[in-house]
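Batch job 17 of 40 flagged for manual review because the log was empty.
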Amino acid sequence: MTQGSCASWSVGRGLRRLIAALACCLLATGLAACDYTIREAAIVAPVDPPGGDPVQEPTDVKYYPSDEPVRMGLEQYNRGNYGISQRYFKDAVEKAPKDVTAWVGLAASYDKLRRFDLADQAYAQAIRLGGETVQILNDQGYSLMLRGNLGGARRKFEKAYSLDPGNPVIANNLELLNGSRRFIERPPNNQP
């Protein structure tokens, strides 16, 4: 080796050692900072938080039902989307099984979908929870009218009307029922 090549080789080797030493210093400084942060955090933050275990068990969590499913069910029902309203009301009764409004909405949605068997179950649950209210009696009468059970519908409407004689919805349903009876009944000579 020549003297010039030895000098460049030793400078290059020295430069590599310097870079390695600087890298070790930076790494050590970084690790020291982490160690300091962990140590400092242990001093600042208590190991056992006051008030017991901060993690809740699933049985400790209380559910506070929202009116969102009922609101959306009513909105979809009023738009004529009875299948969608039925899904929202079903969600509402699953989340809040004692919500009479949700049960009545579910029953009315089932009526519009012509699922009268399920509507009867929903009306029965609503009556168990809130009793025979004017709205439930009126809705049951309308359900019976949709099925063609005009006598049963009349009994429900009259019972609702006796509880609230000034209710225009019930009066309108009775008038609708009276019109339906006149339209359906035919004189015996027009029978096939």
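Reviewer: the log was empty due to a logging misconfiguration, but the result itself is present. Residues 35-46 have pLDDT under 50 and may be disordered. Unflagging and moving on to job 18.
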